[in-house]
Amino acid sequence: MIRMENVQKWYGSFHVLKDINLEVRTGERIVICGPSGSGKSTLIRCINHLEHAQEGRIVVDRIELGASSRNLDAIRREVGMVFQQFNLFPHLTVLQNCMLAPMKVRGTSKSEAEATARKYLERVRIPEQADKYPAQLSGGQQQRVAIARALCMNPKIMLFDEPTSALDPEMVKEVLDTMVNLAEEGMTMICVTHEMGFARQVADRIIFMDRGEIVEEGTPDTFFTNPRHERTRNFLGQIL
Ligand code: ADP
Ligand code: MG
Prior knowledge:
By secondary structure, the chain is of the alpha/beta class. The chain contains nine helices and ten strands. Strands 6-7-8-3-9-10 form a six-stranded mixed beta sheet, sandwiched between helices. The chain has a four-stranded antiparallel beta sheet with strand order 2-1-4-5, covered by helices on one side.
């Protein structure tokens, strides 16, 4: 579903992604962890081309960006993204937030967009919030709206960039539960998170990044019980 080959990226003279190679199969759940500034956000933002890598190949569901911006639209339609800051439109209701992209980007009819939005708001267990504005919701509820909004585009892949880091502790679980449900339904997912309980529960593979490199990857079992690299052990020592 996703293939990154020898991807290199610089911000000016700063080498932020160093020879990244990553393959994600359909239905696979990947967790990426690593210290702040190690390039995790940059890596996943390259997948839907919110960031541009100067070298290497990135193929998403057999689509490669190449020169055509038509492919950019095609790739973005396949990939849903959820950010640390929920990024909901403040002037739109929850329902309208969920209906906007399908109507604008996919040309879905209003009635169909509304039916889809209500279905996913049900799925993330906040159907009763449909007519409220984002500011009237808790952080956990807003993040679940952001997940529902992404799902309304019917993506094949979901990218999560520290979706629980901005939440008060008591709201973390409701968002993680939503993500666990999504994983159980077979969604292909890449999650940047330091929630290691979540990683243990759903990840097929955990990837550890440091200073722009993929240092180590493995199944949760090997990753937690037998990390090969000193840098991984140090990191796990700090967060567990
Ligand atoms: P992480 O998500 O692992 O914390 P990021 O991918 O956000 O790391 O950032 C990796 C490094 O790149 C950091 O040192 C950060 O300061 C730098 N960086 C991120 N975005 C930019 C940018 N737009 N311009 C210049 N440097 C950036
Ligand atoms: Mg980040």
